[in-house]
Amino acid sequence: MPTLPRPATARGEATRQRLLDAAETEFGVHGFHAASIAGITQRAGVAQGTFYLYFPSKEDVIRELVHHMGHELRLALATATADATDRLAVERLGFEAFARFSLLHRNLYRIVMESQFVDEAIYRGYYEALAQGYAAGLRRAIEQDEVRAVDPESAAWALMGIAHFVGLRYAIWQEREPPPEALDAVFDVVRHGLEPRP
Amino acid sequence: MPTLPRPATARGEATRQRLLDAAETEFGVHGFHAASIAGITQRAGVAQGTFYLYFPSKEDVIRELVHHMGHELRLALATATADATDRLAVERLGFEAFARFSLLHRNLYRIVMESQFVDEAIYRGYYEALAQGYAAGLRRAIEQDEVRAVDPESAAWALMGIAHFVGLRYAIWQEREPPPEALDAVFDVVRHGLEPRP
Amino acid sequence: MPTLPRPATARGEATRQRLLDAAETEFGVHGFHAASIAGITQRAGVAQGTFYLYFPSKEDVIRELVHHMGHELRLALATATADATDRLAVERLGFEAFARFSLLHRNLYRIVMESQFVDEAIYRGYYEALAQGYAAGLRRAIEQDEVRAVDPESAAWALMGIAHFVGLRYAIWQEREPPPEALDAVFDVVRHGLEPRP
Amino acid sequence: MPTLPRPATARGEATRQRLLDAAETEFGVHGFHAASIAGITQRAGVAQGTFYLYFPSKEDVIRELVHHMGHELRLALATATADATDRLAVERLGFEAFARFSLLHRNLYRIVMESQFVDEAIYRGYYEALAQGYAAGLRRAIEQDEVRAVDPESAAWALMGIAHFVGLRYAIWQEREPPPEALDAVFDVVRHGLEPRP
DNA sequence: CATGAATGAGGCTTCATTCAT
DNA sequence: GATGAATGAAGCCTCATTCAT
To answer: Which bases of strand F have any atom within 7 Å of the beta carbon of a protein residue?
Structure first.
């Protein structure tokens, strides 16, 4: 079956959104594999068949959710760092924002991680999109001497790796925000890694 | 079900090992959920029922494989860094060793990552064990002024995050070792993050 | 459910006909069971619900199509044999006409065959109606000594059987008209089977 | 999934056969599409999953049954016509044998007919195999002047068509053997169609 | 120690049909 | 007359696990 048509009515659009929300919760709570369409539709308050009016398969929903998380995260980061005066401030605010975001959207974050085992391409795409933006920001900062002459791409991935484990430890495992000292300690490493030497 | 007793005979031990190897490949290739006991036993050349002579369940195998990877990885890192003269050399050699190891044991590495969605505790335990050793090493290095006065634990997790993404990008996604420049670039960030300032 | 009333308006009649045509194609191409109402309505360019404005069920459509094929076929045969001077000529022209018709209306023909597994009565009725006319024609021919004194009914079914397999082999399986020699060869058997002995 | 291994034990072989028998009944009674795996396994007295130990899919069973009917029918025909002294006797005995066989194996016969709508190739193959043997027999008879110089292949298909409708009318629709007069009447047409003219 | 047949719950998905607009 | 969203039953199939030998 080819792509499903978008819902034609507002009612349809609302149902679709309810399903998406329900899926986010179900996947987040039970994991993709343990989650069932029945669970999703039940939570959304519709019949099982309704699911397939809006999504061709269970996998398509996870794909859509990963995309969604990508957008939301970029948005959150952009917003949080909008007022930063230099790149290191961007990094700092970005780490904080990510820590908040990953806790708030714990389910989505878990889904993104699990998507690796459902559709590697979507997972990879998620990070590559992120890395690209990240590297671009670093490149600009290097040009303005706000950051050492690091390789922007390698640095971007390194920083994402650091952030990833912050999210994992605190948002996922401990279900809380990292304590300020921890964030300070992590950022201290980041800062020394990036800041220009006199 | 209590844990199964270890096989008494050498033949049994061999069968058990064959099953473990087969599971490593099957899980690595198809992923934990898509892999089937039938696939594992077929690959191991034994009957399906034989599996349950050695493992109480499918999940137990992944647990055992994750432990296994933990041991092997620590062994590989210890070996690779044995001759290092200072901590930064340890880091450098460690990154290189990890890059090689994650490529060589791609399947195992994938399994570790997926174990998060099968048994979070095992996954978390894997990293916590690693982090503990890592942090201890850093602590010693700090005492000897080979590394800045960072928070050893936070730094350990940050460095593991960096390494994780190196493994992901190269061993998993590209199925090759990282090019030397990439490793240099990453290590450059690490070094500046850790090395003492004059 | 009693039969649905015929549409009152010309627009309704047109929609009904579009649905019938679409069903003919869908059933012919995918088979009755694999064909879906959604496929039919899509092809007809109407909404799914519209189908049930004109037909009480999927089965009713196949029934109507079988009837339709019966009428059309009888018409085609009558037309094709109108100018025949004796019964054997009728047979010959009839076989030719059937070969053409079954190719041209391949989909309908397939539908008739499949109707056996949807509603045996409709299928049986189709052939019994045909057989009746066929036998009547033979009976008249026998009275006029244009055909041997065969049992008209048995002969009619035998001849339909022969024709059926001509349609199957050529129209359905090979999607072409039978080569003239083949038709000659078949008719040769028919002729000897029917023609009066001196 | 590739082909399933044949059962290794006698018990397995027996189960497989029970499933085949059950499927024959279920398909014959309800038709292929209406028949369910659940119905088959219930009738066979095994769990649903057991079905898939022996057959990759529902369709594979029908394929196997069609093959089976082919073999059995050829066997029955060969046996019934073994003592015939000339080809017309073969034809006569063959028609009688087919009439008996199609009644006795009504379910199988129905299944063969329906197989056309499940896997056209299997249905076609069934008849082509039959036709080949039939034509060969006719060819030999022609060489020995027991039959007119008809085109063996065309004649074979024509005769199969006649027999098919005999089976349909009596075995399937009326669930009885054709009355002797009917068989006589049909054979009379066949005989005139085939026998050499003086 | 090993086999391989058997189980049965459970999941995804399809689709004819109904209903509210 | 027409729409298209919604229903929900039903079916195929998979697979971890158990059992009899």
So the answer is: 1-20
